[in-house]
From TrEMBL:
Annotated source species: Streptomyces humidus
Residue ranges of the region described as Disordered: 441-513
Taxonomic superkingdom: Bacteria
Name this polypeptide is given: Cell division protein FtsW
GO biological process: cell division; regulation of cell shape
Transmembrane segments: 20-40, 52-71, 77-98, 110-130, 136-164, 176-196, 216-233, 260-278, 309-332, 338-359, 380-404, 410-432
Amino acid sequence: MAADAPAATVGLPRRRGVELSLIVLAVLLSVYGYCAVGLARNGSLPPGAAGYGAGLGVLALLAHLAVRLRAPWADPLLLPIAVLLNGMGLVLIYRLDLETPGERAAPTQLVWSTVGVALFIVVVTALGDHRVLQRYSYVCVVAALALLTLPILFPAVNGARIWIRIAGFSIQPGEFAKVLLAVFFAAYLAANRTALSYAGRRIWRFSRMQLPTGRVLGPIVTIWLLSVGVLILERDLGTSLLFFGLFVVMLYVATGRTGWIAVGLLLASLGAVAVGRLEPHVHSRIEDWLHPFASIEAGQGANQLAQSLFSFAAGGAFGTGLGVGHSILIGFAAKSDFILATAGEELGLAGLSALFLLYGLLVERGYRAGLSARDPFGRLLAAGLASIVAFQVFVIAGGVTGLIPLTGMAMPFLAQGGSSVVTNWAIVALLIRVSDSARRPCGAPSAAPPTDPAAAPLAGPVARRAARRPHGPTAVQPTEPRTEPPTAPLGVQPGEPVDALVDKGPKSPGRTG
C-alpha cells in the first residue's frame, strides 16, 4: 500500500490551456456562422456581428476563469462543447428571426444564455464539493414536486400545461425539476444501493431478479409516480418519458441489475399505450407520427412533421448553406421543437452528424466523470445528469425524424427557450464539479465531504446504524475518499470495496456469503 501512495497523488493534468484554446475556437466558429447567415440573406455582414462575438466571448471567458480558479482539475472538454452548442443555437435562432420581420428571439436567447452562464459560475465557485448536495436531497425533491405542480394553475399553451407566464415572462418549471430530481435519486440510491441490490423477494418463481423491500424502494417509487402523474395531467409527455428513463437508468447504475432495464421498458410500453388511448392530445401526436402525409393527401397542406422531413431531404449530404433553407415553413416551432430540421436542411447530413457528435461527446464525458468519481453519490449524479442530456437528444431527434412520436421538448443549448438553456448550463456546472473531484489528486486540498451522519436520513436502517458508530481506524476520514467500509455490508466480502456493488454488479443470491 505504501508503494502505491505516491502514484495516487499524481492525478491527471489540468489542461486549462487546452480548454481555453477550444473555447476560442468555439467562439470563432459561432461568429463565422453568424456572419455567414448575414452574407447569405443580405449580402453583407450583419450589423451586430461584433457585439455578438464580444458578448459570447466574454461569457465564455468568465466561465473559463471560474473553472480555472475553482475547478482546475475538471474535464477540459465539457465547457468548450457547451459554448459551441450554445453559440450555434444562437446562430440558428438569428437565422430564423430574419424570416419574420419584427422577431427578436436571438437577443432574448442571448440574455437567457447570460443568466445560464451566471448560474454556471455560481455553481462552480460556491459549490466546493458536490457531495454537499447529498445533505439537501429531500429539500430538492420537495422543490421539484412544487415546480412540477405550479403549471397546473396556469392556462394550457398548445395543449400542454408546462408554462408559467407572469408579467410577459414565460418559465418552464419542469426544466429545473429534472435536475433536482436527479440530485434526490442519486442521494437516495447511493445510501440504499446495497439493500436495493439484494434484499426482497423474487419477481416470479424461476427468476433470479429480486425486488427490494417496500420500505427501501417505496419512497423513491412513490415520488417518481407523483412526478410522472403530475406531468401526465399537464400533458407533457416528453418530460414524463425523460423522468421515467432517468429513474430506470439511475436504478440500474446503483444496483447493477440488468433486469431493471427490462422492467422499465415493459412499464414504459404499457404506459405509452394507455396514455396514447386515453389522452386526446397525445393520441393526435401518435396519429401524426403514423400518418405524417395524411394532411397533404386530404388537401390541407403539410403538417409540421411532414415539413421537417422535407427539410431533411432538401439538405442532402452537405446542406443548402446557412440562411438559404426554407424550414420557416414549419411554423413557430422551427425555433424550438424543430430546430434540428433547420440544421439538417442548411448544414446537411455532415453538419447534423457533427452536432450529434458534440452531444455524444458531452454525454460520454459526463459518464466518464461518473465512472471516475470516488463516491457513489458522485457516480450516480453524473450518470443521471448525462442521461438527462442523452434522453433529450434522443427523444427530440427521434421525434423530428419520424422515429418516435413528437414530444415537445427543447434540444439542449440549441433550441429557443430560457428555462432550457439555464438548466443545461447548471447541468454542465455540476458535471464539472464531479469531474474536478474525480480528477483531483488525493493529496490536493478540497472541501470536506459530508460526514455519514449528515447523509444518514437518506439511508436505510443498516446505513443509519453504521453512521452512528464512533470513528475508529477504519472510519471514513473527512478529507480522504472512502475505500473500505467499517463493516462488510450484505453481499460484500470482508476487505472488498463497497463500490464493487456498482462496478461489478450484484452476485447471485446463492453466493452472497
